[in-house]
């Protein structure tokens, strides 16, 4: 599990930061449409200005390269953190921080390029929005069936998994050695992937309906340019949707035959790698489109001052919500738009909530799982009383000697090695309650009130002591 987690994180993060480095810090800036989020102009290519831009670009690229190297070293080191909960927190924190830090040299370059513009006497046209009235809103490239059909197929697969979960159809358990918890896992994973596919539908329509960019006084050139860009985006989203649908089908087949979580994680790693390949293809085609229409560009919309640090668009005079990004691929929102302000505030709250939850998980993972006998109950406590088992309701109790030999499969709850708490399938029996720290070998099995509990204290001695106390209470 820990090895596959590392693989998945490496598959996601290594291509991501390499993409940022290669795409946002190119070795050759003269053919780019934007330099660090600033419109590339003819004035920048004049002798003295070009030397200054060369210096800005090389310096920022050098800083970005060092950040890239440090990031790769840290990712390798994270893989060797022995405590899985600490490793999870380190990776999660790293994802947020590193993606931001990789853009710090970009913001420096943006600031210096704007300073150069002022020195050259180039004024931005803040608040100006150009519209080609002849082609306004008329250019579309998305065929509705291409995005809807794979989503319908994915929905059918999910409904089959859901019917299997509630017992209407039979998929899981067709072969010996399969377990009922697989049905829950199948429903959860296919549902999550289906949710992504359904979210891509409004995104696809939104991107297809984005206001056309004006690059020329010739409406036909504007139409062809925007059609090419929108088709590239539509192709990527359709590919993304089909990848989701294919993974749903593969996961359902695998979960109906095999019970290997490491195999499921391997497929997920392949899924993430396929998405990264799709992003690479999209970026490459976008670069080809910009190169193709560069010579035909006769209208340059210089609104650099509307882009904060070259990345965040804020223009109260622009009524659009969605704008093509200057950094990365796809679109971004106008933060001056009422909905844009809501999205910005929600994003900030989401980041804060994520860090709060990471802190909670960190504290929880380091808090001992305590079991004690008190007031006629067996109390399982970790930060709070999670379970209280009445001794009078105990039907059977036994003491095990090797908790690591138990086959644990989470149905709901908490699983942060070595602590497992919640509802689990244990040794192929579903619906069991686990309150186990596998660093402690001894464990107690209790049947009470129609439930089966697997519990232990922070040490073998304490677990033995609790067991003896409970047996003594029962015998009285």
Structural description of this entry:
By secondary structure, the chain is α+β, with helices and mostly antiparallel strands. The chain contains 10 helices and 15 strands. The protein has helices at residues 2-24, 47-78, 84-101, 104-119, 144-165, 181-208, 219-257, 261-294, 338-366, 460-475; strands at 34-35, 38-39, 307-308, 312-313, 322-324, 331-333, 370-374, 377-381, 385-390, 394-400, 408-416, 419-426, 429-437, 443-448, 451-455. The strands form 5 sheets. The chain has a 6-stranded mixed beta sheet. Strands 7-8-9 form a 3-stranded antiparallel beta sheet, with helices on one face. The chain has a two-stranded antiparallel sheet with strand order 1-2. Helix 1 packs antiparallel against helix 2 (47-78), helix 5 (144-165) packs antiparallel against helix 6 and helix 6 (181-208) packs antiparallel against helix 7. The chain is elongated, with a radius of gyration of 28 Å.
Reconstruct the topology from this structure.
Blueprint: H1 2-24, E1 34-35, E2 38-39, H2 47-78, H3 84-101, H4 104-119, H5 144-165, H6 181-208, H7 219-257, H8 261-294, E3 307-308, E4 312-313, E5 322-324, E6 331-333, H9 338-366, E7 370-374, E8 377-381, E9 385-390, E10 394-400, E11 408-416, E12 419-426, E13 429-437, E14 443-448, E15 451-455, H10 460-475
Parallel strand pairs: 13-15
Antiparallel strand pairs: 1-2, 3-4, 5-6, 7-8, 8-9, 10-14, 11-12, 12-13, 14-15
């Amino acid at each position: 599990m820990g090895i596959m987690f590392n693989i998945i994180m490496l598959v996601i993060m290594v291509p991501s930061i390499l993409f940022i480095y290669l795409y946002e810090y190119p070795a050759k800036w003269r053919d780019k449409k934007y330099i660090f989020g600033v419109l590339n102009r003819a004035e920048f290519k004049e002798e003295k200005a070009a030397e200054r831009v060369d210096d800005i670009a090389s310096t920022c690229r050098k800083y970005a390269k060092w950040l890239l190297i440090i990031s790769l070293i840290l990712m390798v080191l994270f893989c060797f953190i022995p405590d899985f909960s600490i490793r999870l927190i380190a990776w999660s924190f790293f994802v947020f921080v590193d993606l931001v830090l990789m853009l710090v040299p970009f913001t420096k370059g943006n600031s210096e390029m704007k300073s150069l513009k002022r020195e050259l006497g180039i004024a931005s046209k803040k608040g100006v929005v150009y519209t080609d009235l002849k082609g306004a809103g008329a250019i579309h490239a998305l065929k509705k069936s291409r995005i809807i059909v794979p989503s319908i197929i994915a929905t059918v697969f999910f409904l089959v998994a859901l019917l299997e979960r509630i017992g209407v159809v039979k998929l899981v358990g067709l072969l010996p050695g399969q377990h009922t918890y697989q049905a829950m896992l199948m429903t959860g994973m296919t549902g999550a992937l289906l949710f992504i596919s359904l979210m891509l539908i409004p995104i696809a329509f939104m991107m297809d309906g984005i206001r056309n960019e004006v690059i020329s006084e010739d409406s036909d050139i504007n139409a062809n340019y925007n059609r090419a860009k929108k088709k590239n985006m539509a192709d990527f989203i359709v590919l993304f949707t089909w990848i989701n649908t294919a993974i749903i089908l593969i996961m359902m087949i695998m979960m109906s035959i095999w019970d290997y979580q490491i195999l499921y994680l391997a497929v997920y790693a392949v899924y993430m790698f396929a998405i990264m390949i799709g992003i690479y293809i999209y970026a490459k085609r976008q670069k080809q489109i910009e190169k193709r229409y560069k010579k035909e560009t006769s209208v340059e919309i210089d609104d650099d001052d509307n882009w904060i640090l070259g990345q965040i668009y804020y223009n109260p005079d622009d009524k659009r919500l969605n704008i093509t990004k200057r950094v990365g691929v796809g679109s971004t929102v106008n933060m001056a738009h009422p909905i844009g302000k809501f999205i910005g505030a929600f994003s900030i709250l989401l980041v804060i909530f994520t860090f709060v939850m990471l802190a909670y998980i960190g504290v929880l993972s380091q808090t001992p799982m305590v079991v004690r006998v008190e007031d006629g109950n067996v109390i399982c406590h970790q930060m709070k009383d999670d379970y209280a088992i009445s001794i009078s309701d105990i039907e059977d109790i036994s003491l095990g000697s090797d908790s690591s030999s138990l086959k644990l499969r989470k149905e709901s709850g908490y699983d942060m090695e070595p602590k497992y708490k919640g509802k689990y399938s244990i040794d192929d029996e579903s619906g069991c309650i686990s309150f186990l720290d596998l660093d402690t070998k001894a464990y107690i099995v209790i049947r009470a009130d129609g439930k089966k509990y697997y519990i232990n204290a922070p040490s073998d001695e304490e677990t033995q002591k609790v067991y003896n106390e409970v047996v003594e209470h029962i015998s009285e």
